[in-house]
Fold this protein.
Amino acid sequence: MAVNTTAIVILLASFLVMIMLRFQIAYAVALSSIFCLLYQGLPLTTVCQHMVKGINSFSLMAVPFFITMGCIMGTGGISEKLIALANSCVGWMTGGMAMVNIVASYFFGGISGSAAADTASLGSILIPMMVEQGYDDDFSTAVTITSSCEGLLVPPSHNMVIYAMSAGGVSVGSLFLAGYIPGALLALSLMVGSYIISKKRHYPKGDKFEFIKFLKQFVTSFWALAAVVIVVFGVVGGLFTATESAAIAVIYSLIVSLFIYRGIDLKGLWKTLEQCIDTLSIVLILIATSSVFGYCLTTLHVPDLAANAIIGLTRNPVLIALLLNLILLVLGCIMDMAPIILIATPILLPIAQSIGINPIQFGIMIILNCGIGLLTPPVGAVLFIGSAVGKVRMEKVVKATLPFYLCMIIVLMLLTFIPEISMFLPNLFAK
């Protein structure tokens, strides 16, 4: 295997330098790829060819559809109804509003699939509400940003579609099923952490649980929750593909938001679609440029070199699994989620498979690792959004988030070493 060491150094070093200089990630990926190709004497038409190839995929169409669905339902009056449903479930507990925040994120994540959207939408309502009831502003913000990561695991998640494409043929339906239990486990872990802190700080309880009130709120929220059922069970049941289900979800979200909840009108819909296009352009440009970067990595045999380097350090499967998580956590501190999935999956997935980690399980591990990265400086997008929404200094939020980092790391370790947590539902429905 011929290795062009200089080309590898140019590719990776230029990429890291541009990241440190705070270039936009798409520019950093594209320019480092161009520098590498120029050094090798390859024509720049290769860039255009692989950018087009990267986004010329029928299954990839599910990504813009799911993002559109999340944008529409996120501004269509859904948030308040899901908060009321969560309050009727867990508001009676010590630290009730923190529990409501966590459970509402689980519900809302199944609709938006975005931690940033969850933080911006639910946080703008719940953080002021929690502060008014006597919760500290940094704690309220920390609960909001950490619980928003549930939305990355609970389907439908467009990041799962991106991973399925990067992993080369992993079932989107199986990934959707694999996310439910880890998402619930993450919520439970955060609730335990919140309960302990709430007990120590004497945060208040909410109203007593009333089954009639819960039933009423469930009926009200049914139309929002039904979107998830339509998408997930439609894909798993083989009624339609992930792309078709995403398109149906967009139509459904339009009907629910415009005519049932009436939380948005036609004028507001156009503004929502404008915001949606901004998000879509960022995601699709990243996918296109990452395709070129991935081509460079493959032709330079970087995945094989990385695998040999890691296995050269140790052959202990436990240490290799911990090292994979460490690499993803470090990447999460300096890069956004989509490029990590696109760039790291082809390199790290073969290593994970070599120690017996299923591609579906590894997908859940990557997504949770990236979710933790969204909460860590210096490039923690959700951390910045939460700090802005809660009007709390970032340093103060990071300090308040430390106990919740521990909760998330514990869940990550459980997902890494107990594959049944991720694989139970996919295996159950595969029978």
Notes: The chain has a mean pLDDT of 84. The two ends are 41 Å apart (CA to CA).
